[in-house]
Amino acid sequence: MEPRSCGDIFSEKPGQAGLGDPIDVKADAVISPANSFGFTDGGIDAVYTFQFGDGLQQRRQDVIEREFGGELPVGLAVIVPTMNEDIPWCISAPTMRDPGDVADTVNAYLAFRAASASAMVAGTRAL
User: Fold this and answer.
1) Rg for the chain, CA atoms, rounded
2) Which one of 14, 30, 61, 93 counts the least CB within 10 Å of its CB?
3) Low-confidence ranges of the chain (pLDDT < 70)
4) According to the model, what pLDDT value does residue 90 have?
5) What is the pTM of this model?
């Protein structure tokens, strides 16, 4: 079988996928690949902080501190409110403990699996 691109795989599934700013959509939640300590000052997390405010990082870190002693391991996820009615939740599923190259690891898989499981438990329908 010839390899297919992600676009080919997802084009056969119901739902929306598109190019553009991930904040310009209405969804139940966004997924944040933040680090294990919940810092949101780089990459897509910086976009989320800009859109949802600095309180997002503090709410995330409060949950991580309370439930995990300050460090959310790769492979687990937490859900925190964004305080935005168009996208009310942020699922934080770290792909790395500290910033660094994780290209040759299973971290992205573990993070996505954790985010998907958290979304199902929370009853979110659109990510």
Assistant:
1) 15
2) 14
3) 1-23
4) 95
5) 0.81
